[in-house]
Write a structure and sequence with these properties.
By secondary structure, this protein is mainly β. The protein has one domain. It is built from 2 helices and 9 strands. The strands form 2 sheets. It has a 7-stranded mixed β-sheet, with helices on one face. The chain has a two-stranded antiparallel sheet with strand order 8-9. A hairpin with a 4-residue loop joins strand 6 (99-104) and strand 7. It starts with 22 loop residues before the first strand and ends in a 13-residue tail after the last strand.
Length: 163
């Protein structure tokens, strides 16, 4: 009798129904703070991380590993099937940072702020959330509804600036 390995989930949304990768990278990256913003299309990390890895701009290198904020997602995989095989994934179990840290093949770490899928991508000209008027300010775009409250409460500073 041979041991069987459980099948890994496949993306549930057909490729044709997906929008192009919604990612905005800062002109200067790698200073240890926020390097950009990512707008996933759902809270299914298996699907969204595969999209990020498979469509990440080549000039920044290849993503080798990802560490995510578990409260932001409906799924919490340890591995994600991507175009080139399997990607190992870790999490901050209770850290609600709204970030994903990417370890790159060139030894660099990229920190992306994850914007809730319900928030429109400001680059497409959609109306800003909550009446915000400055889409270039990433903190304006970051409103998560966690258990009925704002992700700002009880903090007065953005998660990317918290210790």
């Amino acid at each position: 009798m041979s041991a069987s390995t459980p099948a890994l989930p496949l993306p549930s949304q057909p490729a044709a129904a997906r929008l192009p990768l919604r990612l905005q990278l800062n002109p200067t990256m790698g200073d240890g703070t926020q390097d950009g913003t990512w707008w996933p299309q759902s809270r299914d990390l298996d699907v969204e991380l595969a999209d990020l890895v498979d469509h990440f701009p080549e000039e920044h290198g290849r993503i080798n590993r990802a560490v995510f904020s578990r409260p932001d997602w409906d799924t919490a995989p340890h591995r994600v099937r991507v175009g080139r095989g399997m990607l190992h994934v870790g999490s901050f179990p209770r850290r609600d940072s709204h970030q994903i840290w990417l370890s790159m093949d060139r030894g660099r770490r990229i920190v992306l702020t994850v914007t809730a899928p319900e928030i429109p991508d400001q680059r497409d000209g959609d109306a800003p959330a909550g009446g915000a008027q400055n889409p270039s300010d990433p903190d304006v775009l970051l409103h998560w509804a966690d258990e009925g409250g704002s992700f700002w409460e009880p903090h007065t500073v953005a998660p990317s600036h918290r210790p």
